[in-house]
Specification:
The complex is a heterodimer.
Chain A: E1 2-8, E2 19-24, H1 30-36, E3 46-49, E4 52-53, E5 65-69
Parallel strand pairs in A: 1-5
Antiparallel strand pairs in A: 1-2, 3-4, 3-5
Chain B: H1 2-11, E1 16-17, H2 19-28, H3 33-42, E2 46-47, H4 59-66, E3 69-73, H5 77-89, E4 93-97, H6 122-133, E5 138-142, H7 151-155, E6 160-163, H8 168-181, E7 185-191, E8 194-200, H9 206-211, H10 221-224, H11 230-247, E9 256-261, E10 266-271
Parallel strand pairs in B: 1-2, 3-4, 3-6, 4-5, 6-7
Antiparallel strand pairs in B: 7-8, 8-9, 9-10
Helix pairs in contact in B: 2-3, 5-6, 5-11
Classes of the chains: A mainly beta, B alpha/beta.
Chain lengths: 75, 272
């Protein structure tokens, strides 16, 4: 098992949390984490792992911090 | 030209040329204030209107700004502030691009929107505002909706482009066109209490990498709207990025993205 810290930003926090830490099996992806916390992929645009850009299928490692943002598009 | 130089040198105060002198020189030599601004800067003098730019922006950089063209795509909440700031900064030419007219719901945040500008083209309001604050700045109004086909022509010979659009597909079209034309792009977006800024360098495709999979046209702004205070924060950061890109100064947001949360007052920066 590995430990992952999950940080939600902006509207993703509503009815969820700001920061959480979870235990996951080895080989877990960003999509798997979203599923665990019931965050629909369509609500997430920006994915950062330890401050670097990632994707839904990026495999996470022990101690990673996953930061998730909704799309912002207005002017 | 020598006569203009002598006329200006005789009337400068130190290395500053007051606006009244700039106007009088234009009248005397049958030139525009814009032509006289060029003459002032070429003499290593500074139009006095930029006195408070110093030493943040020295005369050499002021000259670079004057000789630059910036395409501002979108003249709404972000674009209105960006146009204002770039014109006051002393950018010589602005290409302002927008197909919309002002509507009542723009009044809550868009600085070019007033009761008297309701129903008028946003690009025309932008031109009028720049004329009122810096007549030496040339405004090219392009009343068009940017798409994949017209984007290269709309950008023209811009030294830099600014994304002040209001939807994700148009932002992607602009970002792609900038890559094709090797024009650096400053991207900014707002919604609710939140905003993002990044700079896509000439050799980067950052915007498409971040937003390329987004299937919807709008982001969180669709449900949150945008209050008055969020656009000027992001717009000012975009204007600062443009200034650095043009003058090759400071550290830009190339390969980085900033996310600003004005509700929690937090700023986070990521590598992209």
């Amino acid at each position: 098992m590995i430990r992952i810290a999950i940080k939600l930003f902006a509207t993703l926090r509503k009815d969820r949390f700001d920061v959480a830490e979870g235990k996951f099996p080895n080989g877990v992806t960003v999509s798997d984490v979203l599923l665990r916390y019931s965050v629909p992929e369509k609500e997430v645009t920006l994915i950062f792992i330890n401050g670097r850009h990632g994707d839904f299928d990026t495999v996470l490692s022990d101690g990673d911090t996953l930061s998730l943002f909704p799309p912002v598009g207005g002017g | 030209m020598e006569a203009i130089s002598d006329f200006l040198k005789e009337r400068s105060r130190g290395d500053l040329v007051p606006w009244e002198v700039q106007k009088a020189t234009a009248a005397r030599f049958n030139a525009t204030v814009r032509q006289i601004e060029e003459a002032i800067l070429s003499l290593d003098l500074l139009p006095a209107r930029y006195a408070r730019n110093r030493t943040t922006i020295d005369i050499a950089r002021q000259k670079i700004l004057f000789n630059s063209t910036v395409a501002v795509v979108g003249c709404g909440g972000l674009g209105g502030y960006i146009i204002e700031e770039l014109a006051r900064l002393g950018v010589g030419t602005l290409r302002v691009i927008d197909s919309d007219v002002f509507e009542e719901h723009n009044l809550n945040r868009q600085p070019l929107c007033t009761f008297s500008s309701l129903g008028t083209a946003k690009v025309d309001a932008a031109r009028d505002r720049v004329r009122a604050i810096n007549p030496a700045c040339e405004v090219v109004t392009l009343e068009a909706r940017l798409d994949a086909n017209n984007a290269p022509a709309l950008l023209g010979e811009a030294s830099a482009a600014v994304d002040a659009l209001d939807n994700i597909p148009s932002r992607l079209n602009l970002a792609d066109a900038c890559i094709g034309r090797k024009i650096p792009l400053v991207h900014g977006a707002v919604g609710g209490w939140y905003g993002t800024v990044l700079t896509q360098g000439r050799a980067e495709n950052t915007v498409r990498r971040l937003y390329g999979d987004v299937t919807r046209a709008k982001g969180i702004e669709e449900s949150l709207g945008t209050p008055s205070f969020t656009p000027p924060v992001i717009a000012s950061m975009e204007a600062a990025e443009v200034c650095k890109l043009l003058t090759a100064d400071g550290s830009t947001l190339e390969s980085r993205m900033i996310f600003i949360d004005l509700f929690e007052m937090s700023i986070v920066t990521f590598r992209v």
